[in-house]
Amino acid sequence: MYIEQVKNSRFNIWLYLPIPVGFIGLMVLNFIGTQGMDVEKMMHNMIEQLGTNVTFVLMVGPLSFACLFLLFWVKFVHGQSIRSLTTSRPKVDWKRIFFSFGLCSTITIVMILLAYLATPENYVYNFKPGPFFTFLFLGMILIPLQTSFEEYLFRGYMMQGIGVVTNSRLIPLLITSILFGLMHAANPEVAKIGPLIMIYYIGTGFFLGILTLMDEGLELSLGFHAANNLVGALLLTADWTAFQTHSILKDVSEPSAGFDIVLPVFIVFPILLYIFARKYKWKNWKQKLTGKLLLVEKID
């Protein structure tokens, strides 16, 4: 019933279109603008001139404010409650958010620890108390807003809007997952590792989209995405990543497209789906992922 919450007379396609069209336009302009540029060198120059934490704020801050703008647009332009953009439940289930956050945090910590123990020569100790705790403060505020914006935009606003227009669940799952992956096409990781890393980004989009449709809400994807970005940024950084931070460790190895893509997309994500499915007793997978929308009598 998550998508169906906006299937009513208040849904106005002309009020809906400016957000996705505008964002996709910005994605295209950003991708075109970075072609032929050494994004990694540009990031290094910014960090040398402004510092790592200031550069982080400039990179993440706009998306954090975009989250607040999107929620304002939904609430006051569409007249839709933030609750209905977040979940089909009577109220937001914070236990789901914290469970997903904790599970993803644990997996991230274990994977980084195992990688460090397996190849310690690929990592250097990067911890500096002052800059680290400054970043911790900034990250705890900005990263959840940044990841929430992406979830509310792709798995919330666009999932519901495309679903209502197409009367489908599969079509919005496909479109939002692919667009989510393409949003990262201008990241320095793509230039460094190659286009195969898009499998990871698009695969992550599908994983988060399946979470949303099967659980009938954003809670699990909100918790997972926030933990993935925040905990990862606190523990590990590299010169070729979009997030260059005052983390505890720094990866100094030469990246390659291989096991780092296969492990999360084809092993970790299916295991997580199994865990969530067992815990929350998911049923009717075919209907929830590929079926038509259901009729609803009353919508908040």
TrEMBL record:
Superkingdom: Bacteria
Signal peptide: none
Single GO term (MF): hydrolase activity
Pfam family, one: Rce1-like
Domain CAAX prenyl protease 2/Lysostaphin resistance protein A-like: 135-231
Transmembrane segments: 12-33, 53-76, 97-118, 130-149, 170-187, 193-214, 226-245, 257-277
Keywords noted in UniProt: Hydrolase, Membrane, Transmembrane, Transmembrane helix
EC identifiers of the protein: 3.4.-.-
Designated name of the protein: CPBP family intramembrane glutamic endopeptidase
